[in-house]
Amino acid sequence: MRQSEITDDNLAAARFATEATDFAIKLETIESMYEVVEQALALIARFGFTSMFFGGVPRMRQTFANATMAHRGAEEWLTEYTRKEYVWADPVIPAIRRSTRALLWSEIPIDAEQCPEGAAIMRRRRDYGFNQGLVVPIHTPSGPPYFVSMSGADVALTPAARQIVPLMARCAFERIQDVGHEMVQRCSLTAREREILSWVARGECAAEIGHVLNIAARTVETHIRHACLKLRASNRAHAVAIALSDRHIQV
Known about the structure:
Number of domains: 2
Radius of gyration: 20 Å
Strand content: 5-15%
Oligomer: single chain
Number of strands: 5
Structural class: alpha+beta
CATH architecture of the largest domain: 2-Layer Sandwich
CATH class of the largest domain: Alpha Beta
Low-confidence stretches: none
Helix content: 55-70%
């Protein structure tokens, strides 16, 4: 390898380390789970990651949806994963339980004969374009672990990024957890605001929503405006995105 290539690699690693540090510092000012995921994913997209997930290993009698905190970039796959309850046969989950260090999917042993369902789930991930992933276990003093998962079609991590990305992911997870606690303490959306945002998420306009709910379109707009203020959203589309990510509404 030429000296110029070594220098370029070192410069790229130093630049990413600086950007990851700036991101960790900036996290304290981000007040939406949606924005945390958006900015974290934008930072690691250079390595081929196109999706990011924050959540926990479900407890007994808990669904995967209830253990989900925030995600971006794999909505269709997560819908199938949740609906078909893949979590109970996913080989990544036992690896999360056993390990304290970040793991690439390729580092997780999968015996297709002993665990055909697990092997099928990994193949199904590839059907959605997720050929490689990195999972970061986050263990707590009690209960099942949490984790951050990142994936993409063509993931290529440099040695430096292999160390930095998990640290950045843990910082983002802590902020998402803090935002969740702050959301509970803040004034939450009213039932009517959640109902109207659900209709907005389905593409309905204020007049149509008003007709369905038997209220004036002007009243619908007022509820949307109040929801935007509470969620600190710039517009109704942004409010819907935050409400979906933070699980105020479901569609």
